[in-house]
Amino acid sequence: MGLAYEILGPVRAYRDGRTLRLPAGRPTAALVTLLLHAGSAVPVERLCRELWGARPPASAVANLRSHVSQLRHLLTSPGEPVRLRAECGGYLLRVEPGELDAAEFERLADEGRAARAHGATDLAAARCEQALALWSPTEPPPAYGPITAATFDRLRERRAEVRETYAQARLELGDPGSPALTALLRRHVVEHPLRESAWSLLMRAQHRAGDRSAALQTYRAACRALAGELGVPPGPELTELYRTVRRGDGPPVRTTLRVPGRSPRGASPLRLTPVPHELPCAAAPFVGRRAELARLTTGLTRAGRRPTTLSVYGMAGAGKSALALRAAAETVDTFPDGQLHLDLGGSIAGARLPPLQVANRVLRSLDPAAGPATSLAEARARVRSLLFDRRVLLVLDNATDPAQVEELLPVRGGCAVVVTSRTPVLDVAGRIRLEPLPQEDGLALLRATVGDRPVDEEPESAVAVVAFCEGLPLALRTAARRLAEGSHWSMARLARLLRDERFRLAETGLRPRLSASYHRLGSAAVVFRLLGRARPGPVTADQVAALTGVPREEAAWALDRLVAAQLAEPVGRGHFRLGELVRLYAAELAATEASAGAATGAGAEATAS
Known about the structure:
Blueprint: E1 3-6, E2 12-15, E3 18-19, H1 26-36, E4 42-43, H2 44-52, H3 60-75, E5 84-87, E6 90-93, H4 101-117, H5 121-133, H6 146-172, H7 179-191, H8 196-208, H9 212-229, H10 236-247, H11 290-301, E7 308-313, H12 320-330, E8 339-343, H13 355-366, H14 376-387, E9 393-399, E10 416-421, E11 430-433, H15 439-450, H16 452-457, H17 459-468, H18 473-480, H19 491-499, H20 504-508, H21 511-518, H22 525-531, H23 541-548, H24 552-564, E12 569-570, E13 576-577, H25 580-608
Parallel strand pairs: 7-10, 7-11, 8-9, 9-10
Antiparallel strand pairs: 1-2, 2-3, 4-6, 5-6, 12-13
Helix pairs in contact: 1-3, 4-5, 4-6, 5-6, 6-7, 6-8, 7-8, 8-9, 8-10, 9-10, 11-12, 13-14, 15-17, 15-18, 17-19, 22-25, 23-24
């Protein structure tokens, strides 16, 4: 029989039907957190935050290791692979299909909703009933951390939706307002007094049972609840139902039972679309970015009845993709209908995906059996139809222009899109500009990449490495790979290599990323190349005009283009600065252009002679 876990009530674990004795307190809380993220590595930092709050004690990591060791020993049997292991800077719990009641609830709820959408009402009722039976009459214990608490809030919200789907299906199948259904709906409106749909279903069940007086009393109770909490009257649907009951019109007629697994016409079998889970496990360490991560995760967890769009932008190598994927991983349970990840190609020159290809790729992830659309409008419309009233997360990485990412979200539903880009391609409120890491976080990233010892033994050299890499995570991780090549490399030697401008750009791995930004500059590319010949330091439009020979207004426009492309930044009124790595890249381009011009001139001279 293997393992089984119950968290939709008192937390319990079983092996071969035998109850396991779980250690009380934080070890069990850690188990619940890992179960809610089964199959994904949960970072140590997040586990500590979940178990001890925003300011965990110094002993938190050591205590967490002890808790994990207890759980590993409890959950692993001799002769079978380890269930709980360290991975990607955190811990991953392997849970097989059918072992976790919450996962089974989600699966049955998805099947019930899909069955109802395809007209198989009796199958929808059966699946919803099975899903609801997994919940214990006793509520789960309070969660330690905010993200785990938010996950349970979402599960309870999903339970409310399943109850209503079940009740609606029962009524459509001809339930006469049975005592069991009416009792379920009475409990439902007590738990969710602001859901008009709950009041409506209870009124329908009472009306179906012939209890007109109870239905009218339910309407008056709904009015009091909505006015007292929200200060609003009932909506048109509930009001029209009230008028129907007052007129004494008969209850709806019984709907004919349908064949399980069939469409209303009985022509085609029910096809349940698989739920995509495309988020990759982070291969590189993630440090810092606490404020930005909090903004992203808060924006994602607040996705409600209307879709949410968030944007992260910044210069090449700043860690935009890492931040977006970290936020997506931390909020994955907010999006039970799927998580998509698509690289739109903006980080490498010439790799941009056309908008139609983007929309068709999203379409294929949501419905693998569907064929591609032939036009962009058709593709976007089909994507919106598939996303309507669902909770799906789309991480669209490395966008270059709005056409790649716009018009994909429907008008209703809890979907969210996170877009990363060099420039702010979308004008949305949830827009975050990612700056380079401060020195403290840059050193922390070095420690996470190469270990504490190289940094502690040569702290001044480590500070120099962070400075030469300008706090860019990509540059730091790339340069630090030298230290993994063997003991002949030291932090001091790496700092000396980066100090040499002939090698710095190559050692940081930024050249191909900067090239993508450069190739989108248009006519401003000429000014950018010539700035490579200027002395380091801020420049003005007048200085650029004198250096390049272009009119001042054209120079000012070119500087604005460089700022938009994250290749320059304003440093005071009318002054602009190129980072050293960007300036080195511009100098390379200028030198290449000069060499090509010299070679062309020499060739022409030889031909003439």
